[in-house]
Protein: Glutamyl-tRNA(Gln) amidotransferase subunit A
Organism: Anditalea andensis
Amino acid sequence: VQYYLNNIKTKAHLNAFVEVYEQSALAKAEEIDEKLASGKAGKLAGMVVGIKDVLCLTAHTVNASSKILEGFESQFTSTAVQRLIEEDAIIIGRLNCDEFGMGSSNENSVHGKVLNDADNTRVPGGSSGGSAVAVQANLCTTSLGTDTGGSVRQPAAFTGIVGIKPTYSRVSRHGLIAYASSFDTIGVFSRNIKDNALVLETIAGPDDYDSTVSRKSVPQYSTLLHFGKPVKIAYLKETIDSKALQPEIKEQTLSVLEKLKQEGHKIEEVNFPLLEYVLPTYYILTTAEASSNLSRFDGVKFGYRTPNAHNLESMYKLTRSEGFGEEVKRRIMLGTFVLSASYYDAYFTKAQKVRRLIKDFTEDLLNKYDYIIMPTTPSTAFKFGEHSNDPVAMYLEDMFTVQASVSGVPAISIPNGVDEKGLPIGLQIMANSYKEADLYAFANYLT
Ligand code: GLN
């Protein structure tokens, strides 16, 4: 704990942590030392973990990096964090992110931007930018983030670490501040596969507080990392041929596929004509869900209330106008529009149907192939401000990560070398629902 606390101080300029639980982390470390001496410590004894600022921890502030949650304290602990604590992990602090998980660069945060430790002029990715940089810069051993459309995998790629988005419904969302409930997942950042597997097997599994969580038992992923048999792998032509793809990322991805072929695995190119519809589908459905989820922040129940109101109506309006950031407001408006009576069928219903087509296609493919491989992102970490005035350019950053989110299947991003500027490249692997053990074993083989 002392080692990480020192690193957090020397790397304070990265702005990854918004709060450090110094006293409680040191106290917990001492408690664990005693437990270890008597042989009674949990399986994560001593693992130092940071948590994204959207996960509740009793009697601690949680803001979702938004002014609207200023001063809000959690009334209970999220299931994922509770399970870590029960296995004697040490929660070291709260990590910066994009407001309500909306963004791909961590520039939309009331706590300010997070710097990429590989190059301080570049973004760490988002929305879980603080969680990624905390692991990249050795400020904690592992961290929890959330991935709705790529927010664990994309920052993992930009910072050269491992990040998993589990199957939708594998991990309880109880105590996670919602963005888009039918997409939200809690994911894990780490420097290696084994730590990642250990954390996921601890937090996953049935929970009486979240009726959408699967009742399937959780394999002990960390004991199943051996990979021995030849497998079938698909790559999608439209991803590799995409004009937006940085040439070095294309080369590195193709060279992994070539190496796998030489090692006796079956590699096949598959057409994915729906690729161009994945991003619009994702942004219509997530904004719709967000507009509904965020209606609860009205100045009455949570956090910030405007001091400028003169009646009830202006209290609601001013609280929301002053409390939400620009990107969040854009999405609430977009979501409200696609759900409005005259446009519901044209946008929301249509997008639901396209979601089903994408999900069916992806699951069918993953019944025929063990894995789909693609780049995690079209480019390596970009400069601050590069996309901040162009929301569509920012949304395009998610073009490869949203397929797994729309389909609900698990996906992992692992480091795959660097580009000519020395910036990390990520490789994304997808498997069918609940096949996290296969993902980890394969990722372990590749790293
Ligand atoms: N960048 C995507 C978005 O802004 C993904 C965010 C996420 O996964 N939370 O919606």
User: Anything to note?
Assistant: Residues 101-104, 127, 146-151, 179, 286, 398 surround glutamine (CB under 6 Å). The mean pLDDT is 97. The chain has 15 helices and eleven strands.
